[in-house]
């Protein structure tokens, strides 16, 4: 249920004051730009309780201290793969004892939730630099330059391999930040090689490659 906007104590007191002066609900609603139903509720509360201020709300106080909350946030931002068990033990070291659910609730209040880490290719610094250089050079090309290019690539898909559920604490829209991803490599367990291509005219067919992909096989695929 959405949280209802609460009118200030001053507005509520002024409504009661004008009501005592003889004004009706509709006039008060128009004067203070408050729904008629809200005016009725304020007056009803005043008649029953003799005041319009809110009583102290019930509910247990939060077990986690501001210091412990800050420590949790720093920990998961430094290492998003930190588990709830590790976080509970970490803040226990500063004398704060909480449950794993309290850890989850605390991090959610500051916009941090647990997500499955995205898998991305393992790239070294030289690979990142080369990709950036290539992308920068392509920005200066004319649009029709790409009409002459056929983009192709092959990938080796593992038939068997590790499939762990790597979870990370992160904010929305930060899935592909490096610390929130899991580097992947292609090896072991049996595999198949698939080749594909695309151009400005559309996508080509996928081909399963027997053995090692080389220039000769590429020519044969394009000719057929």
UniProtKB/TrEMBL annotation:
InterPro entries: Homeodomain-like_sf, HTH_SB, RNaseH_sf, Transposase_5, Transposase_Tc1-like, WH-like_DNA-bd_sf. Residues 1-52 form the Sleeping Beauty transposase HTH domain. Pfam families: HTH_SB, HTH_Tnp_Tc3_2. It is found in: Nucleus. GO terms for biological process: DNA integration; DNA transposition. Residues 70-140 form the Transposase Tc1-like domain. GO terms for molecular function: DNA binding. It comes from the Eukaryota. This is Transposase. It comes from Hirondellea gigas.
């Amino acid at each position: 249920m959405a949280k209802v906007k609460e009118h200030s104590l001053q507005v509520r007191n002024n409504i009661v004051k004008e009501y005592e002066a003889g004004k009706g609900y509709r006039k008060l609603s128009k004067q203070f730009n408050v729904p008629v139903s809200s005016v009725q509720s304020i007056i009803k509360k005043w008649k029953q309780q003799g005041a319009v201020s809110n009583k102290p709300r019930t509910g247990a106080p939060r077990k986690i201290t501001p210091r412990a909350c800050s420590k949790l946030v720093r920990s998961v931002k430094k290492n998003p793969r930190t588990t709830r068990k590790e976080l509970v033990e970490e803040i226990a070291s500063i004398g704060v004892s909480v449950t794993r659910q309290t850890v989850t609730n605390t991090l959610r209040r500051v916009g941090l939730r647990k997500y499955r880490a995205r898998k991305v290719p393992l790239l070294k610094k030289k690979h990142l630099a080369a990709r950036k250089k290539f992308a920068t050079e392509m920005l200066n090309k004319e649009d029709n330059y790409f009409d002459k290019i056929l983009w192709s690539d092959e990938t080796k898909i593992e038939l068997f391999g590790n499939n762990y559920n790597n979870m990370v604490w992160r904010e929305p829209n930060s899935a592909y930040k490096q610390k929130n991803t899991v580097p992947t490599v292609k090896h072991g367990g049996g595999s198949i090689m698939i080749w594909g291509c695309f151009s400005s005219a559309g996508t080509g067919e996928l081909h399963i490659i027997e053995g090692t992909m080389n220039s000769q096989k590429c020519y044969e695929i394009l000719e057929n």
